[in-house]
């Protein structure tokens, strides 16, 4: 299929029968406001790590049960959406990638974009549960603090802080550049800014496809959104630090 990693509402409308659509909003929004036809409901709180700190991945068995109950197969193309510029949906997609699901799309412009030109429904689809089997964790993409530290000394790598500028100014990993995830979103359309505009913005910060990009944040959904955008732009080597700055400093690493 085309439109890898980011799918327009028009593209989704043409492929509704060929993809698994996942609604990440709260259950009351799915039921009370309506949803994309055929979409299944997997609210954000359902796949956050149970009993663990924010940002941790859910347990493998829990993830398998969630996707199996939603009727999703390992070979499905998953298109996820929310109503907050895709930041929560991006976390769902990154979790799916972590557990070996490769065919993933973020709905560009979130549910509001779908509403503008396409029909919605209040009817939940008939779901046939599956025996979803997650793959092995993607250690090539999800890195630890030692990998981040190595990247700070690597001339062919750039460490990117996806928090707000005020947070970055209060302290960040030495050498990291700041890219607030909202900078790539158009407030009017709610979708991503044009590809060329985002590429120019990234280049201004020294973030280019010929470098290894290592992302970090204190909130998993914000870093997830930037991760999806970079993969959509064709960046071949994007790493995701699942730990927080608290984890970073507790390991004895400094901030700048």
From TrEMBL:
Pfam families: Rhodanese. It comes from the Archaea. One of its GO terms (molecular function) is thiosulfate-cyanide sulfurtransferase activity. Residues 15-123, 153-256 form the Rhodanese domain. Keywords: Repeat. InterPro entries: Rhodanese-like_dom (IPR001763), Rhodanese-like_dom_sf (IPR036873), Thiosulfate_sulfurtransferase (IPR051126), Thiosulphate_STrfase_CS (IPR001307). This is Rhodanese domain protein. The gene is tssA2.
